[in-house]
Amino acid sequence: DGVNYVAQGVNVQNPFYERLVGVNGNNNFSQWRHNARGVDLRNNFDTPMEPEPETSALQGILRFDANIKLLLEFGCGGDRISYVSQGSTNNLLSTAKVLGRVCGMALSPQNAQDYSGNLISFCDRECGIPAYSVFFKDSSKIINDRMNIFKTYAGLRELLFMAPALI
């Protein structure tokens, strides 16, 4: 629901306007990465407060659906694949290497402390599911260059078709 803020900005009549501008730091929401209430859902998985409903629902699915064997999280900002390097899941590094070769991306191992509260850390720590964050180039560069769109799509398509074979 925060995508509307990126596309259209936040109207001063919005009941959360002051809070949202405070979280954002200004009234330019073109880089907004939160939900409509100003919560960064990417880092809402290990919080002392009650998680947002979206986070809570996803936590339940990941904890109790034994059919989920691998999680890929997608984002923009870096041409890299991140994973929790001290993960408890088997073959984490070897799978990351294959994913990196398919996408032509560098690996970016993260310490568990660096990823505290996010989805891939939650999957590793709480669910034993191997999880990776796949970061493509900055979204504005992809959108403004047609060749980048097709190259990104081709890499994503190959990754999605190949990933189930890794589990």
The fraction of residues assigned to DSSP E strands is 5-15%
Major sheet summary line: 4 strands, mixed
Residue-averaged pLDDT: 81
Q: How many helical elements?
A: 7
The helix/strand class is alpha/beta
Structural Rg: 17 Å
Order of helices and strands: HHHEEHEHEHH
What is the gist of this entry?
The chain is α/β, with parallel strands linked by helices and 167 residues long.
What does this entry look like structurally?
The structure is a single chain. The protein has 167 residues and is an alpha/beta fold. Helix content is 41%, strand content 13%. It has helices at 3-8, 17-24, 53-64, 92-103, 119-127, 139-143, 146-162; strands at residues 71-76, 80-84, 106-110, 131-136. The chain has a four-stranded mixed sheet with strand order 1-4-2-3, sandwiched between helices. Strand 2 (80-84), helix 4 (92-103) and strand 3 form a beta-alpha-beta unit.
Break the fold down into its secondary structure elements and pairings.
Blueprint: H1 3-8, H2 17-24, H3 53-64, E1 71-76, E2 80-84, H4 92-103, E3 106-110, H5 119-127, E4 131-136, H6 139-143, H7 146-162
Parallel strand pairs: 1-4, 2-3
Antiparallel strand pairs: 2-4
